[in-house]
Amino acid sequence: MPTAIAVTSPDLVLPPTDQQTPTAALLQSPDAQPLDAALADMQVLVEQHGYVVALYPASISAAHERRLHTVRSVLETDRIALLKLDLPPLGVAVLVRQLRQLSICDFSAGIVASAARLLSHYIYAGALLNTVTRLDRVPVSLKTHAKSWVPGSQFGVLANPTPQLIKIGGSGELAGPEFGTQLIVGKGQSQSDWVTKTLAPAWRVQGIQESALPADSPRWWGTSKMVEFAAFLPDISVLYQLVSSVRREVCSWCGIELIGDRCGFCSAPLTAPENHMGAPGVLNHGTAT
């Protein structure tokens, strides 16, 4: 059985890219499920799949995050990875789908878990906003805050991999990926087509997908008048090559296999100083191979 991928909200489970991509398990909040039921569900996942990689956004409630750690602690197992992601909701959903794709490949659970940090660097997640007055995820200058009060103002914001903010209609452009991507778009209460008509051609995306807006997106971005987007690597063969190209190590603490500089299961840092997350040569400039 493939490594189980789990999420904290059903809207973080995007439609599969093919018939082989498995779905993700739902780890419900304390308000929706008592502890005994949560423990039983997790126990079944571990027994059926061997390992569970649970991804959750940094914006979830403190009670929900405590529940995740409580379940792992009570079960006294080292087979559950809890990965906290500081990505916008749609970016989290994209990364979840990529790990779902990788879970059926010949990667160990440790590689799948630690691949999350690597792949997050290749997700360009942002939004078109009608106001930035309540945006606290990306640095906003006082001058930009003042412009936000002008009727009709719109802003393009990139939260990952490098924060950036521009005023639509100005001279600035959002820095896009230098490799082939597809774009997924979730519309809030904004009718603007700037993302699909201006940003997508500028980034030379190879396709556009539409998605329902995650429920937490308006709170994350500080407004419901928005369009959220994320550019990503869609091809499983590219994802596989990218992950495969990084040197594999063994965690000195829990003994699980990993890539990068930190174990996805126990969070112990890698002691080998020469190891790095980058995978130069896998993505050619301008295209994905």
Itemize the secondary structure elements and their pairings.
Blueprint: E1 4-7, E2 25-26, H1 35-49, E3 52-57, H2 62-75, E4 80-85, H3 89-102, H4 109-120, E5 124-129, H5 142-148, E6 155-160, E7 164-167, E8 182-187, H6 194-203, E9 208-211, H7 217-221, E10 226-232, H8 236-244, E11 248-250, E12 257-259
Parallel strand pairs: 1-2, 1-3, 3-4, 8-9
Antiparallel strand pairs: 5-6, 5-10, 6-7, 8-10, 11-12
Order of helices and strands: EEHEHEHHEHEEEHEHEHEE
Distance between the termini: 29 Å
Major sheet attributes: 6 strands, mixed
Average of pLDDT: 90
Classify the beta-strand content into a percent band.
15-25%
* Spatial sequence of strands, sheet with the most strands: 7-6-5-10-8-9
Low-confidence stretches: 285-289
- From the 3D structure, determine the CATH topology of the largest domain: Rossmann fold
CATH class term of the largest domain: Alpha Beta
How many strands? 12
Q: What is the CATH architecture descriptor of the largest domain?
A: 3-Layer(aba) Sandwich
